[in-house]
Amino acid sequence: MNVAIVRIVAELRSIVAAWHREGLKIAVVPTMGALHEGHLSLVSAALAKADRVIVTLFVNPKQFNNAEDLAAYPRTEQEDAAKLASVGAHILYAPDAADMYPQGFATKVSVSGPSDGLCGAFRPGHFDGVATVVTKLFLQTGADLAFFGEKDFQQLHVVRRLVRDLDIPIEIIGNPTVRESDGLAMSSRNTRLSSAERRTAPKLPEILFKTARRLTSGELVERTLREARQAILAAGFSKVEYLELRADDDLVSIATLNRPARLLVAAWLGQTRLIDNVEVRSPQRLDQILKQAAA
Ligand code: AMP
Question: Does this model's pTM top 0.70?
Fold first, then answer.
């Protein structure tokens, strides 16, 4: 079956209203297109929990802080629609930028707290752009559930806070990062890597996972992170924007591993910026998990 492509919000609203009248549960999966298995895993998770799934495709100019990055962003709507049809999504909502942000558009949604630091520090305005478009997409689709990837872990936190603070009646569900067989997190930007860079790229998750294991085994946070930064540069990356340990549940910085945590990284490989993150459990928590598994 084909996926229905909808561009006009009034049309979308009338379809959704009819679904809601039938008592159907509706999920939305916001994307910027150039769909890969990571996106499709969100669609599958959405199909498992909802009766109807809307995938949005909008390359949101407001969340790009770099005009070249926006111009170079891959646009593959036809292939995206075919992939969505093959997994069984119901609607591809792909509005025009001029409809999303008409002349005179003057509103900005800005979420402090989880936007601070990490990508927020290096991409000024990025999370305001994300929060603004996600708010619009939630209001336009009227969905009951929304699916986001842990690949963009800070974004997931920003969206959760936004929904909580503004009382938007939608449940946010995070899904694990889907990786290539060599460990590289899938990303629409990976297509920009040269073949030499593509061979270097999996070093990033390799170092990230190794560092998480060292932290879990009780090694000192500051020294371990310093050595990991050096290892990323030695592997051929040109710059490490950040490599930080943050609390898993509220993203605050932590200096010792005394609660479930995330190790998050952003690094440049040539002209391409890669981000990734991994869960880090405290040794006590790991003991607990092992004991539960043995019981
Ligand atoms: P994007 O099109 O990059 O804006 O991503 C759309 C959604 O897909 C976001 O919620 C991302 O976190 C998610 N996503 C992107 N890459 C992956 C991945 N490798 N695994 C899981 N989710 C992903």
Answer: yes
